[in-house]
Amino acid sequence: QVQLQESGPGLVKPSETLSLTCAVSGGSISSYYWSWIRQPPGKGLEWIGYIYYSGSTNYNPSLKSRVTISFDTSKNQFSLKLSSVTAADTAVYYCAATTSGYTSGWHGYWGQGTLVTVSS
Amino acid sequence: DIQMTQSPSTLSASVGDRVTITCRASQSISNWLAWYQQKPGKAPKLLIYKASSLESGVPSRFSGSGSGTEFTLTISSLQPDDFATYYCQQYSSYPWTFGQGTKVEIK
């Protein structure tokens, strides 16, 4: 059973960098893609991207120029950095464990989510 | 990007009703589709993957069907715990995309 827990600042100023961390417990690191997904208040879900334990990444092109996802295997955690944020980046950010493999891509485990507000 | 369109956006139903939610893809995604349930203030929960495979622990009243561009999520007999918002998600090609959601309300 994989458990995920997001952490990071709940308030970020416009033009600065949003940084979040997701602590992973349980499960095999190599069995999943480690994903970030966000949900603006009252709106739908948007996949941000993922990292595999090998270090390979895949990002949503709509955010690619501003996103970095990294993995710290020694701490069993992965991180999201989103640069040059605006109010449009205000959302609940979820980390998720996504079943890996050629024919896979469903998010089986989710963190509880953390609200990040972009405001001065 | 593949666009996922759910219908209806809102559905009013009573306990015991059979409920069907439709998800249409803007191009064929084979059966690379998942369904999630989300309750207010909570993370989404996986219900169905590969269009029709029931996630472990999910009640059998939930079922999924379809392939290509048209998919359905069916709740055979709606229970009080099922009032929530449901999302479909395609993972056929990047970027992975979600439908806009269907809210199931109490009638």
Describe what you observe in this structure.
The complex is a heterodimer of chains A (120) and B (107). Chain A has 120 residues and is mainly β. Chain A has no helices and eleven strands. Chain A is globular, with a radius of gyration of 13 Å. Chain B has 107 residues and is mainly beta. In chain B, the strands form two sheets. In chain B, strands 2, 4, 5, 6, 9, 10 and 11 form a seven-stranded mixed sheet that branches. A four-stranded antiparallel sheet of chain B has the order 1-3-8-7, with no helix packed on it. In chain B, a hairpin with a 3-residue loop joins strand 5 and strand 6. The mean pLDDT of chain B is 97. At the A-B interface, strand 10 of A face strand 5 and strand 10 of B.
Roughly how many Å apart are the termini of chain A?
39 Å
> Which secondary-structure class do the elements of chain A indicate?
mainly beta
Largest sheet of chain B, in brief, is: 7 strands, mixed
Low-confidence stretches of chain B: none
Mean pLDDT of chain A: 94
Quick structural overview:
The complex is a heterodimer of chains A (120) and B (107). Chain A has 120 residues and is mostly beta strands. Helices cover 0% and strands 52% of the residues of chain A.
Produce the secondary structure layout:
The complex is a heterodimer of chains A (120) and B (107).
Chain A: E1 3-7, E2 11-12, E3 18-25, E4 32-39, E5 46-51, E6 57-59, E7 67-72, E8 77-82, E9 91-99, E10 107-110, E11 114-118
Parallel strand pairs in A: 2-11
Antiparallel strand pairs in A: 1-3, 3-8, 4-5, 4-9, 5-6, 7-8, 9-10, 9-11
Chain B: E1 4-7, E2 10-13, E3 19-25, E4 33-38, E5 45-49, E6 53-54, E7 62-67, E8 70-75, E9 85-90, E10 97-98, E11 102-106
Parallel strand pairs in B: 2-11
Antiparallel strand pairs in B: 1-3, 3-8, 4-5, 4-9, 5-6, 7-8, 9-10, 9-11
